[in-house]
Predict the structure.
Amino acid sequence: MATLPDNLPPLRDIIKFHDLSAKKKLGQNFLLDLNLTRRIASLSGSLEGQTVLEIGPGPGGLTRALLLEGADKVIAVEKDPRCLPILAEIAAAYPGRLEVIEGDALELDVSNFSGLKIIANLPYCVATPLLVKWLKISPWPPFYNAMSLMFQKEVAQRIVAPPGSKTYGRLSVLSQFRTVPDIALILPPEAFMPPPKVESAVVTFRPIEKPAEDCNIGTLEKITTAAFGQRRKMLRASLKQVSADPIALLEAAGIPPTERAEQISVAGFVRLAQLMDQ
Ligand code: SAM
């Protein structure tokens, strides 16, 4: 078998050798081009001396890139036991630098982690719940200092959407309240095997250590869920779900009760959350 710069065989050969057929249920769309995974690996800065948390390493295309790009250590969480022998071969090629945890990333205990980067080609089925979980994490600043995460392009656009746009919603407010998100790379379906139906995008997130105006993110989530759950309605109607007197709440925040959710800035939602908790 031919080998790549890391002296391991090409991904295509490994997948064939281990008969790793992609499972849709697990969101398995693999990246096989090591040049591309190396580019993704370095989107949130140099990995020299860094610890990286990777979710869903699969056959290891991105994992190998993270190690080649100089990560001191990669902690990789994979749900599919079929990938473990392949990951063990990568671990053997990089002694002491790859730790594989078999399990569900949604249940991962992150309480002992700090100062790491999260870099992942996420399974689409868990991408949004995982992101929301990490945005809501306590204490803040969080256990990560940067994230580069792959989403369906449409989800990536919602994350970075400004007020006034059709895609602005709960995910935009939560993401932009706690981080600076940016679409760093857009990938066509053909970049993956098997190709998904839609385009994908890598979003980088830089956590904001201390937001200028702070609030309880749980309250912010409740308000934005209610407001955008009925995005065509005026806020005086949609916020009835979370407030006994939405008109008074909106007026106290300096927001006309006839406005709709998509017109309100992140700061406006933060003010509403602060007032709700008073
Ligand atoms: N990182 C590989 C790559 O870029 O080629 C695979 C990415 S693939 C989109 C998503 C991976 O996440 C799969 O390996 C899948 O088995 C794994 N996965 C799916 N659900 C998971 C979960 N809840 N926790 C951890 N891994 C999961």
User: Anything to note?
Assistant: The chain has two domains: 11-207, 217-276. The chain has eleven helices and nine strands. The pocket of S-adenosylmethionine is lined by residues 26-31, 55-58, 61-62, 77-80, 83, 104-106, 121, 123, 126 (CB under 6 Å). The chain has a mean pLDDT of 96.
